[in-house]
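Q: What changes when zinc ion is included in the input?
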Amino acid sequence: MARGSRMRMLLPQPRSRFLVVECPNCGHKQVIYSHATFPVRCLSCGSQLVKPTGGKAEILGKVEKILS
Ligand SMILES: [Zn+2]
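A: The predicted holo structure follows.
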């Protein structure tokens, strides 16, 4: 028997978080903000690492570590 409401638990959005992201192009690692509202580029090669979406930013590189 199914429950009346199957509401998905929404994870509380962390207000701010810093991530260590590895550039997929050159492997350079840099710290970026998880809710960046502007595109972040790799300091080494200039590849875009973060795409702002209006909410949580989309990480284009590989997330190496989450700093809290
Ligand atoms: Zn790079």
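Observations recorded in class: The chain has no helices and six strands.
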